[in-house]
Amino acid sequence: MPIISPSDLLLPAEPGQRALARELYALAAEQPIISPHGHVDPALLAEDRPFPDPARLLIVPDHYLTRMLLSQGVPPADLGVPSVDGSPVETDGRTIWRRFAAHWHLFRGTPSKLWLEQTFRNVFGVDTPLSPATADAVYDALAARLAEPAFRPRELFTRFGIEVLATTESPLDDLGRHAKLAADGWGGPGGRVVTTFRPDDVVDMEFDGWAANVDRLAEISGEDTGTYAGYLAALRRRREAFIDAGATSSDHGHPTARTLDLSPAEAAALYAKGRRGAADPGDAEAFRAHMLLEFARMSLDDGLVMQVHPGAVRNHNRWLHARHGRDVGGDVPQATDYVHGLAPLLDAHGNDSRLTVVLYTLDEDTFTRELAPLAGGYAALRLGAPWWFLDSPEVLRRFREAVTETAGFYNTAGFVDDTRAFCSIPVRHDVARRVDAGFLARLVAEHRLAEDEAAETIVDLAYRLPKQVFKFGGERS
Description:
Keywords: Isomerase. This protein is 48% helix and 6% strand. By secondary structure, it is α/β, with parallel strands linked by helices. It folds into two domains: 51-148, Orthogonal Bundle (uronate isomerase, domain 2, chain A); 153-470, TIM Barrel. The chain has a four-stranded parallel sheet, covered by helices on one side. A three-stranded parallel sheet has the order 1-2-3. Strands 6-7 form a two-stranded antiparallel ribbon. It is globular, with a radius of gyration of 22 Å. The two termini are 43 Å apart.
């Protein structure tokens, strides 16, 4: 029995709305993919090596999957997740795959199940439903595909219809992978790969190794980070290098959305305190808050779009962090205050249309109460799509319902896949396009939107808006 993947996947159940949604979805489906925020390793495309076995490609690096199994008592080591202390982990791909398949029922109703099944079918052409009984058959079918030249990363990039893929790098990255892509003259036919400036590890004093990272920033930039002025100069120098490598945006993953406008003397004093190792958590938060406003000023100078991703309590599962490190599923969302937190930044620059700040949230309660009114009232603000814990069909629907009446469609920034899982990119964008088609079809059915307006809007949401907001150039001819 094949995986069920009807053309009406996620479209409205009501026949009239479904017919409208089909037509709208068809317009979106033919658009290239603009992926303005994600965490694909640029080495994947720079080196263009064959993917590893199915388990190492699809399970081991996917914290959506491994955290679910951990919640049911399966330790990440049993799924091949590397340990920080070198303790043994499972290395046999087929064993990992069988163990995962034995727990596949845990993902019923989750976006992970939807994404993975659609990846099997639409990327690899594997229709056999995953189960303990079919684990080996699915594994073998996927492994056979991965051995084919057509399933190398660069070939898939082209087949996926990606026009722009933005990766995310630290200022400490030498951008060598991007340099190799440029030297190869490669971005895929009609496509390109760009970097994004993500300075958290040199801004957040609570980040492991912050002081050493700032020292490294001095080495790579050629600026003296012993002083606050030199530190700012080093950041500006690295931003220039990122722009030269194609960056159009920066990204800031702070615990909160707080901003603070300190005087140069106050900021320098905080920085010096951090360099001495004397900063407490309040100092670290104040410095992060001030740097968000400092980065807004830099963006006014160099034009980088500013993405703000607040609200994650990092490494909440301390056992998991101690055993396996960062970014393996140990983070959780928290409530986030945008109205008061962003006030200093908005007071200073919120009405300056030269600045673009794309706001994201892990706190769904803020959609209507805070984010939509803010984006609907400040020239500098745009709303980013639901991400991470919220990037699911139900929340994507609720997002449109919650923000559209206040902020409209054109104060949003299109969909971001925010993924390390390269092979899931087309699937995730397809899900968002289907959800938007259903929402627009309902507005047409309720006589709140004309069909021609809905047709234009679905293409804007899928393609034109992210291309415009993230400054990826003009529209297609």
